[in-house]
């Protein structure tokens, strides 16, 4: 016997004895009596057997005992997986309780941009207020690259009305 593929609750095993009709009948009758086995598929072309079982009530060794006395020859890939599963990975310790993603967000920068937006809006003509796109263009002139939607977001956060409602 050789385990070809294994997932929790399903295993595919290559069994040379599968060509024997007596062996197939014994396995099918045994699976019908065992409630832990959900499905059994025999593939004579591949000389393999796929067993779907309840992983909570049954382990792979129980499936192998059910199929016969012979122990399987596992492939090297399966051995690699088991070796990696036993390895422990060390999590690096951080000196502060701050999340590592916090370094990507710069609240100080957004605060200064919000102040500039507030200053631009205060200095605008009340009869012809700047749109979010115009504010974005004015900030571009000051080498602050910011999108129109970001200007709108900051304006809403600060509680400033849109240009159509600021018009007097």
UniProtKB/TrEMBL annotation:
InterPro entries in UniProt: RNA_pol_sigma_54, RNA_pol_sigma_54_DNA-bd
Pfam family, one: Sigma54_DBD
Recorded GO MF terms: DNA-binding transcription activator activity; sigma factor activity
Positions in coiled-coil regions: none
Superkingdom, natural source: Bacteria
RNA polymerase sigma factor 54 DNA-binding domain boundaries: 109-168
Name the UniProt record assigns to this protein: RNA polymerase sigma factor 54 DNA-binding domain-containing protein
């Amino acid at each position: 016997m050789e385990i070809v593929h294994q997932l929790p609750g399903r295993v595919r095993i290559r069994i040379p004895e599968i060509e024997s009709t007596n062996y197939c009948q014994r396995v099918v009758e045994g699976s019908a009596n065992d409630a832990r086995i959900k499905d059994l598929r025999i593939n004579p072309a591949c000389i393999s057997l796929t067993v779907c079982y309840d992983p909570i009530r049954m382990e792979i060794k129980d499936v192998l005992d059910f199929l016969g006395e012979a122990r399987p020859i596992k492939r090297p890939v399966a051995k690699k997986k088991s070796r990696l599963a036993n390895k422990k990975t060390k999590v690096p310790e951080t000196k502060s309780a701050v999340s590592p993603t916090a370094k990507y967000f710069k609240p100080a920068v957004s605060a200064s941009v919000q102040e500039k937006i507030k200053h631009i809006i205060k200095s605008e003509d009340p009869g012809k207020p700047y749109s979010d796109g115009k504010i974005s263009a004015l900030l571009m002139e000051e080498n602050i690259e910011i999108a129109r939607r970001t200007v709108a977001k900051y304006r809403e956060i600060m509680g400033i009305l849109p240009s159509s409602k600021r018009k007097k």
